[in-house]
Each structure stands twice: as structure tokens, then as C-alpha cells.
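During the reporting period the student researcher (J.K.) took over the structure-prediction task from the postdoctoral fellow and processed the backlog of single-chain submissions. One of the processed entries is reproduced below for the supervisory committee.
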Amino acid sequence: MNTVFRKRLWNGNETRVHVSDDEVIAEDYKPANQVKAILDDNAEIRNHAVPNPRANGRLVARIPDTMHREWKRDWQTKGRQDFTWQTYLAMKLNSRENSYLKLIAGKI
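J.K. obtained the following C-alpha cells:
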């Protein structure tokens, strides 16, 4: 598989396009140190935040943008007919495997 296009974006992500004889694959790549910084900040905020359940528009999670696009693509292909995007996103964040992305304890 040959990489025919590679571009670094303003936010540090890299877009890559790979071509083989029978397929073209486009991927978004975020360097591990940027993802680690987001997850470390999430843990810090989660451990020191004072919750206010009555606050409107409160920040409840921070998700790396590449993961957000992957979830959005997954929702558009599999979940759109059953759930709204907000419901699907809440389900993803409330799942055990993605709880590290939340900034608050409990369900969203």
C-alpha cells in the first residue's frame, strides 16, 4: 500500500491517503502526545472538579477530534435510524470503556 497524500493540519493532526490496487483508504491521525495531553487534562479536571448538576451548558467530556469523527461516521452508518446524535454520543460516553473521557462522575 502506497501513501500518496500526507498533509499536516493546523491542529497537529495529519491526513493520510493510502492507495493499493483495489482500494483507497483515507485516515486522520493525531499524534499520541496530543491525545495523552487531552486524557491527562481530563483526569486532572475529573479529580478536582466541583460538580454543579443545575448548571446549564456545563462541560462534561473532552474527546480527541479523531475519535469524535470516527464516532460520528459510525453513527451515520449504523445508529442514525435509531438514535439522535446527542443520544448516541451520551451512550458512547456512558459506556465503561469510554468513561475516561468524561470530566464528571456519573451518567451524562
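The committee noted the following: The mean pLDDT is 83.
J.K. will present the remaining backlog at the next meeting.
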